[in-house]
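Comment thread on ticket #2218

A.B. wrote:
> Attaching the input chain for the structure job we discussed in standup.
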Amino acid sequence: MQSEEFLKALYERHGDFRLHYMRGENNPIWNGWKFYSHCTEHERNEANLREIMSNEIILDIDNPEQLTEIENKLEKLNLSYTEWNTGSRGFHIRLVFPDLVLCPEEQCKLIREYVIAEFGTDPKKKTGLLAIENKPHFKTGKLKTLIKTIDIGDNKLPSGVKLFLDGLKIITPYKPNIDSNVSILQKLKDSIPQGERNGLLFKLACSFRSRGGYGEEFIFTQIEAVNQAMCKPPLEKKEIQTIVKSACKYEAGIPLADDTHIKSRIITGTSIISGEEPTFDYFIENVIPMGTVTLIGGRPGAFKSMLCLDSAISIALGKTFLNFNTKQNKSILYYDLENSDKALHSRMKYILRGMDADIMKIDGLNFCFDFDKNNMRKELTQAIEYDIIYLDSFRRFLKGDENDSAVIDDFFKNFLKPLVDAKKTIIMVHHFRKRKLEDVDDEDIMESFRGSSDILAIIDVSYGLKIANETVRDNITQFDVNLIKGKNRHGLPLKSVIFNVVKNDFHKTTSIKFKEFGFIDFHEVLKQQILDILIKNDGTTTRRNIVKGIKTYSAPSIDRTIKQMIEDGTIQRIKAGIYGLTEEYRESNIYDNNDKRNNDDDDDKHDKLPM
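C.D. wrote:
> Ran it. Output below, let me know if you need it in another format.
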């Protein structure tokens, strides 16, 4: 077999690997490695070194006597191998363990060290460079040739590991280092119970993709085999396909470049329209669709986190949320990078009391207060175990500036997209820009979100929160808040609603209740507040008193509304800084009050009539 054929066969069977070209010892021509799939045909022909792959163990032997001794050991261990004359001064024995890619990197390194040490071969061949088979050696120019092949089937793990540990009498034990000392391989010895299937199979798929660069078809075959053999009960094939596709799209994997993969991306229009109409179920009816990314935004203090926390508790307990039915789910992960567990202690108890629920127990709602931006694979492996994932707040999960589209794209491809592909539901908290919300029309709420416009491109649903009214009496604070529908990618029957937040510090409760559909017009609210202040002051007051009496709006907004009310004929400017009600408004107001009093008197008379 020619070198080019060998490399192609290696790639097709085991996945991508890197090549190198040396003109002579310590005389590199290429500045670094190049993946086989990224090399031109000329570069593949030129290359004379390749990396040792993650499923290989290479025994580097210097003399024929040692070679014979090692061949005898391999025969006793019943292992397959190929034997090569390096073209330099020695020999290479190549052992391939397809399942070695399932081991953590540190464990792979240990296994290689044990095997190489037991056979007494060159320890430098744990990782690094390897002269390409069927090519002239870069030092001597002599051809590296195959001596023999012993093929008795694939070398298996963990049985292969057991042979190394028992048959070779390795003293240092093999210690797994995944998920609290329970390795993937140990789990595969017995069975994978319900509740662990998706997460474990996703880890396996990612291992195949990241370590060996395997393609989707190969990974699906392997994962489906594990699924059928070990999962009790097995997952459906559609779920396995979803898991494999998620792993293959993960950026840390090595992309494969072949024509079949490229062509498979093309979908005909006929196939699209002939498919079934997509349907959506909801975790919160007509508010949070399953399998989507929802963005909830607002200014500081707009109850973003409170609303999300209330919704998560409602779903976990199976209680209604804003009068909407919820589908109870006890697989919720709430990432909170804004608060600590101590900060949430009293907040959660306030909410639970407001729901008249048990304040000492809530099953199914789990929290995480940190996120490793530099290791999204770890976070993805954790998050994919859950059905609903909350992210509070969005910008703290980014590895860079929220205004940078590349940063947003990186987070989407490496974390959000695999979760969406796995049919997970993501709810993200985000902030509005520093602008006065009363200057933003409710139908233009999408323009209020901070950061790159790419943020809005990656979501399916968005809501904006705007406080409309606030009243304080004794120990009770009440707010009317607009929950305004923004983006609705799938055209679902979502609605804007007004809800009421009541915080009672005496009873230590917080309740969030539905008020009505629609939203409160900020401009009308502000007009009414100005009128209330004028009426309270017998129809005339100063600008200073108006601004002082209205805390939820800025002074410029108040000035603009006063100007509009003057134009409407509701109020008038008496002199600089002093405003009053117009005669027309006074007459209308007095008429309305007299009319109401007359009606009340009629009612009183009616009540006094004999029965």
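A.B. wrote:
> Thanks. Noting for the ticket: Residues 583-608 form the longest helix (26 residues).
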